[in-house]
Amino acid sequence: MAIPTTMRTVILLSALFLTISICAQNIRVRSVKKVSPEESGSYLLSGVVPGSGLLLVSGSGYNGLCLLDTKTGRVQVITGDTGAGYEPAVTADGRKVMYRSDSFIDNVKFSSVSSYDIATGTKELLLEKGRDVLPPAVAGNNVLVRSDKGTQVEQAGPALKSGNNGTFLLTEDLMPVLFRGSERKAMMPNGDGFYIWASLSPDGSKILYNYRGQSSFICDTDGRILHDLGRINAPKWFNDRLVIGMDDKDDGHRITGSELVYYSLGDKKRVILTSTPDRSEMFPFAAGNRRIAFCTDNGEIYMMKVRIR
Amino acid sequence: MKPGKWCWLTAALLCLPVLLYGQRTDFSGLKIFINPGHGGHDGDDRHMIATEFWESEGNLAKGLFLRDLLEARKATVYMSRTTNYTSDDLKLSVIAELANQANADIFLSIHSNGFDGTRNQPLVLFRGYDNSPVFPAAKSMAQILWEKLYEKSNYWTHSFQWVKGDWTFYPEWGDQVGLGVLRDLTMPGVLSEGSYHDYIPEGWRLRNENHLRHEAWAMLRALQQFYNVNPESLGIIAGTVRDELTSPPYYYGPETTDKNSPINGATVTLKPSGRSVMIDNLNNGFFMFDSLPPGNYEVIASGMTDFYNDTVNAVANSGMTTLADLLPSFDTARVPVVIEHLPSTTDSLPFNQAFSFRFNVPMNMLAVQSALVFEPEVSVTYEWDEKSRILTVKPKTGYASGTPYLIRLTTAATSRWNVHPAGEYLVSFVTKKRPKLVIDRIWPSQGSAGITLFPRITILFDAPLSQESATAGIRLLDSQSVPLTKQNEQFKSEGGKGSYTFEPASQLERNRIYRIEIDASVKDVSGISAGTPVSTTFTTRTEAYQSGSVIESFDNIGAFWDPETSGSTVGTDNPMTTFTASYNTFKVNAPAGRLDYLFTGDNGGICRVFDTGKPLIGNNTSQVFAMWVYGDLSENRLEYWFYSPGSVNQVVPAATINWAGWDLIAIPVSSIGGSGEWQYHSIVVRQNSGGLKSGTMYFDDAMVFTPTGIEVIPEDLTELTVFPNPVAGEGRVSFTLRSECRVDISLIASDGSLVANIFTGTLGAGEHSIPCSPSQSVAAGVYALRLGISGGEDDAWRYVSRRWVVLK
Q1: Which of B91, B135, B187 comes nearest A233 by C-beta?
Q2: Distance, in angstroms, between B1 CA and closest chain A CA?
Q3: Which CATH architecture has domain B439-536?
Q4: Predicted model pTM
């Protein structure tokens, strides 16, 4: 039976797409450059502003939040609020930064959530100070904030034409929770135990998390485990097919070393990316599709150029 | 005003203080994160051999007790672990992220501390510099916690408030690096080092469950003050039961309550509550009664052998610990009795036999000595134990040969409190006939080989020697029968026996036969002579000594800790066990390190000298680590201790100490466990059963080098063969061992580098055939197959090698 031309084209395109999607990716390091200013103290890396060359950095205890321009080394203060550097979120269009601010009243933690417009420098309070406020979650240009009072979703920019616009992932009481429209779905893919460092893949189809501090995993949004990544701490999506993270070591008191590692979903293998006994690379973030930003245990920020194959 | 409005107003006024000061009745709504430090008995745990204490266990017990106390007061508690397996030893980054994701209000990491074994005080750390904390509230909490930890006890060695920012406290880790577990927290966090587990009295206390619970109470009180929670309405009475007459045999703070030995197994009862607790047998004497209504109590200690019951009055106060220590008095009216005398044998006793008498109560030493009579008369010396309960009597010169004796302890003896025994105590014995001076041991022994070129010739006799006769009648001769000049002659008399030792004035030659001659005229102090001449021969080592890169010269004696403060030391008499600089005896340059040790038991003692310099020795497994060691023939075991990366301790047995004089004691670096850059950190003498209880050793120039002329095993000891030769596929290494040995089989390239380790382990006596396929792992070429063995009669490593051609 002859296959119609249109059908043939669809089959060929589908085959090509499948080939691309299952093709394994690997990371090779091209160069590493220190980007934190020499004279300006110690930093923690908090995130990346997409498509801008800007990094989000904070001080000790994740206190304060700044933009670090990796091209000029210029630092622009967003806020000096306590805890603002812990898991800030940036909208997909790279225009707004959402962050949680903490204050301790009679030594009890209260938090609020604000947004910061990078272009204008204007701030907006999204959630009043309260208890059990979680770091904000972003899907596309939408942001979800949650506290003991409930959940609210704010549109912080135009809707995306493609990609994840409406699926959010939060960690509540050490358990990943998926929010999709009015649906709230608690996830415990590995059963009882604690879950940390949970995040959604860029296409919103998979969940990356660390279980009980022993191993990182990837599951789908129904909780089916797809990958056991092994020991990768602070895992982050590099893209939909690669995960980056750190293999840190300590003696129970101090960090004794840390190397960057990655996991290729195509190869199902974990690879050590760095081997630098004199430098402890920690908490990496994808900075575009050819760069990885990371910090060190002594508060320096570096940018690594990589080649993806 | 209507009555209803009065009610509301009254209620509002009653609540006013609460509203103004934020006083809480409990911890409702608060999230507290507890991190019991370390986890699992693995590499980063801290294990104290002397007390069998594991820090991971103590930290966890304290954490679980605190959790229970907090949850009973409505706190929401998160814990980084609730069990103690290796899998519980989470990375510090994971623990911090857990606390962050839990959105905790406060983070508390629970630890105990270690330093040099002489310190015991709380230390609380927060993130930041001393005067610039990252979270100011963390410093406040740290100060409160330190106060609560300190005030609960009275056995601290230091009293100043020790609250530090981690960046200030650990400058050597780098600026603003600090504690990994506090690094990434988004809330105030503190790390509590509650006490010092290497201070042995505290190490024993940390094994007492009530002591650990007491620390949890102190942490609870700190959190109550920090969060303005109503303090406890109930109180605690805690304390120790100790012997006022004795002090413990290990280090204790001289100004602390630890100067009195704890009493094991006492029952402590509290009246009027009727509660009682039996103290454990873990040398801490600690008891605690918690949750006590305020008021007056009687604390009664009972059930103690040899002690009267003791009572103290104590007042329990709300939210506080009242310390109530008991020092029960000895039962002074008890009639003294000899419980035992040793030896119990009565026939053919040595001419210098010592006797010991054990009494049931402390004795009046002078009264006992006056009441002890030998018939016929003997001039004796007296030694007492520190409790005045064990008397050891030794003859000054010796008893007569083949003579019956009677020892009579008359009723003139008295206890320390002047109570006389009910009757005389008699011991009779007959001495052995002793026709001649007996030689107990000669070192080097007859026919021995591989002897050091710097020996101390040692001859042991059954009686102290006449020095003149020994100097004239004992000599060392070379292979041409020429007597060598002697130096550093020493005569010793101990336990009724005698020894004579000396060194040749110059270095011996390699692979030569030497002879020790003892004339028939050599005699003891009582004039009994050897009667017949004795002669022994020995052969010196075949290989020259190598030198290498010196990593420890022992010149900076301040870098070494005395054994009593080095941790892991156990079973030593501390005032008598020291590590000092020796300017008279040294191998390379003065000073060398001198170790004087005295073990208190018969076996199992450990004497460790910690080198704070912890010099790196590299990671080259083809090299050898060696040290000049002056042996004392003690037959104890010499160990070298190393750190592999991560401060993981690696213990390597180096040799049985069966030589006297200087010798270079080497181990292959490949025999050290772990991998990476090793650090040498300690010399350890481990007491063997039958080993000497006391001795003196010296140490000089520790070094690493690549072996070239290594000492070889006599061929007939091993019969080493490699087959086939050349080898292309599977080959076999065959050899024979005469006794159980540690074995190391390696393949060595022509440049001396290690290319493959084929086998490391212990093998029994007999024939062995080890399979290996070198062609699969190394390039084709000519190699040396090296067999190293250690053990049997001599624990030093020795090697033999075979040329092996590897084909592809």
Answers
A1: B91
A2: 37
A3: Sandwich (2.60)
A4: 0.65
